[in-house]
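Following up on my earlier message about magnesium ion. Here are the inputs again, as you asked, copied directly from the submission form:
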Amino acid sequence: MSDDAREPSRPGRGPGMLVVYTGDGKGKTTAALGLAARAVGRGLSVGVMQFIKGKWSTGERTFFVGLDGVEFLVMGLGFTWDSDDISRDSAAARAAWETSSAWIREGAHDVVVLDELTYAINYGFLDEESVRRVLLDRADEVDVVVTGRSAPASLIEAADLVTEMRAVKHPFVEGRRARPGIDY
Ligand code: ATP
Ligand code: MG
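Thanks, got it. Here's what our run produced:
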């Protein structure tokens, strides 16, 4: 064993995978970011795009932003969210997709996480078929991880690995509030 905790494993990891974490249970974003941490530990380059409004701070953003080998972007940053303007949400989602789809096409990162991408598709901000095509035509060896509830059937069909989180219990149902370090 080397002293270095990081053991770069590239190149030659073989064809990349499309991974989908979906379902109503908690753990989709957590799983995707856990995978990202594992990849960083392997010396891989990781791109994370969160398709959420970026005005709230989260533990994961604080942790990953500025970490070596990681590009961590939040869709909403750079936009103002004064009103619940749907056309603004749509423009932000499309801008986020433009950046992250370029990563995937060009192989800018070994692993690309598209967190909550399913919402951008399900709200009609992004075209489902165009997304599917980019995910399938990804650069060799690039792994893509998509998260979000209600993943479209075409994404599930295109994926190599799909896990559905099932809500068995969630404290929110009993009125317990979101917890720093656990929920955000
Ligand atoms: P996490 O980010 O904790 O891994 P997630 O990505 O699976 O959760 P999302 O649908 O993105 O879940 O929702 C994010 C927020 O909603 C989190 O604060 C999470 O605790 C909460 N949440 C997730 N699942 C449930 C549920 N079944 N009931 C109530 N709240 C939930
Ligand atoms: Mg999530």
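One observation from looking it over: The beta strands are 18-22, 46-50, 70-74, 111-115, 143-147, 161-164. Hope that helps, and feel free to reply on this thread.
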